[in-house]
User: What shape does this take?
Amino acid sequence: MPAAAIQLANASAAYDGRPVLQGIDLTVQPGERVALMGRSGVGKSTLIGLIHAQAPERVALVPQAAALVRTLSVFHNVYMGRLDRNRTAHNLRNLVWPARADLDAVAAVLARVGLSDKLREKAGALSGGQQQRVSVARALYNGRPILLADEPVSALDRVQGGLVLAELARTHETLVMALHDVPLALAHASRIVMIAEGRIVLDAPAARLDAARLRGYYADAESLA
Amino acid sequence: MRSRGLTPAAGYAAVSRWIAALGLAALLAADLHVTSLHPWADLQRLLGGLVRPDFLAVEAASILYTVAFAVLGVGLGAGAGFLLAIPFARFRSVRIACALLRAVHELFWALLLMQVFGLSATTGILAIALPYAGICAKVYAEIIEEADLAALRALPAGTGTVSAFAYARLPEVAGAIRAYTFYRLECGLRSTLVLGFIGLPTMGFYLESAFRQGRYGEAGAWLLAFYALIGTRRLWVRGWTLPLLAAGSVLVLPATVGAVEIGASLARFLGHDIVPAPLRGAALLAPESWPATGAALWAWFRPILTGQILPGAVQTLVLAQIALVATAVGALLLFPLTSRRFTGPLGRPLGRVLLVTLRSTPEYMLAYVALQLLGPSMLPAILALSIHNAGIIGYLLGRHADGLSYRPDAPRGLNLYAYETVPRLYGQFLAYLLYRWEIILRESAIFGILGVATLGFYVDAAIAELRLDVAAVLILATALLAIAVDALSRALRRSLRIADLPVRLAGPHARPAPEPLTA
Assistant: This one.
């Protein structure tokens, strides 16, 4: 059996002394596609932060909120995904006068998320959904084996979101994504991890779950509130 | 008063009352006599000069010198400030050095530098560059600190420091840094004017001599030329003109007046002139002589402390406090002039021109003019400080007032002013006022050179007597006073939760979310 892609054992996290996550045991094997689910505020983003801290050098990150540099072009924002694999002099030169080869490579990635016409536009001038796709393109261009994404398609409609998730699965070996859309999660994940009150309350293959069961976790919480 | 849990509104009232009460107390202690015989006749002649300016007397060369000093001084200061801004947050020593650099006024720097570099371009440029490096380092560091760093987290692990800075940090802050630097250039132009008053060949030099000799037509022409220079700043200071401005500035710099051997005079200045007199030639390495040297040092320092530093500091604080209250009143009265709701679309441009003129007029020059009209007392300095600073704060408040959204059935006129506008602007107003406090204090010290007995008066006297060691101690005391007031102002702003930097010219940035503390 190959080494696990991610291994968290009894991990916990706290904000200002207030515990957010406790006793998290999570092992992800290479090739798995994991959807992290749960109500907002249960600690999904914190868990993503913990996973990122585990193996930053093997991770391509799609953070929550697109996290783009608004004053730079779409090309530069996507190119940032590979800053670590180019020499500093080349990076600085690309900031002023982008190299043809890099422009072509980034344009190819942008085509996969349907943004090939936006290469030279300012990132800040794009709509929310477009910015989110630029953020995804940056992770695709990064190309590291573990894709770690925090609500990567929350600003897209279900059809578009499905296409983007399929693209992510095509390039990256292992996927760990926080998702809130139940049908999308069932369609694109091989394993569902449900979090509630700082703990993992469900961890099962997607094939053995259905939409009604997953919705139950959201409905329960609402009736408790 | 409760020490914690003060609501900002209660805090606003308390702080305002304290400032006003201290201002009134200072007013009782201040010398405000009008000693001039014919102030109105002089004012009439002055205004006559502005109406009939003698433009033929304006020498183009001195305008070029003015621009050259400002461009090179601010350029050098901003460049050094940017380099200092990077370690600013991490090293306390850098922060202290920057605080000292900016706590000493340009004019004091010039007086010190003149002892080494003579009446030369180097003196003029460094006198601007040194304090501006301290100011720019602080402001750039705050801009870099507050920038949105979300993109930095998304960079792949292992990205080099330079690449990360160039891609994820610099583009976020470049706009704000550029806007602030251009604004500083305008301040630099005003500073060069002050340098002219001590003999450097800027426009201030000619302005001062025209005033002194009563040639008001010439003085008016110089003044209008200066307003034109400041008013057109946005036309000639642009990204692409900067290299041309810098290169041109180097070419037109004036020659040094008289010959100066810099190496020798620097060694004499640092090794002898500013060393306290009892320490010169003392055997500092022999422990048995320390008690005697210490006693001599105290005997030297005590009269400076009791006869100059303490009375000078009291007068400086008195002047600054009155000017602060007058600035506050002036700003609250003036800001409606630039606000659409109060002046309408026709009056507002006029109000704006008035306030921009007020803030473009260097306070030192206002004080000089008022001194000619009213005679020597604190009054000219108070007028100058409050007119200049009320213009600055009023202009900024007016811009904020236009940004407020009122309900459709909002009242009008004075009711709107008292019930809607002022209450909503008050936090911002206090932030601006507290921020200008330190600047007003530094200027108050400087006005001693005009004859008010603030710290600058003693500095000027010490330099005139060539007692540079005394001057250095006095300047250090002034700097420490400014740093103390700055710290108090910052503490007040923080406790009122109005700690944001008011000179920020760029748009608001979203604050990054706190990083999770992993246990």
The mean pLDDT of chain B is 85. The CA atoms of residues 116 and 265 of chain B lie 5 Å apart. The two ends of chain B are 39 Å apart (CA to CA).
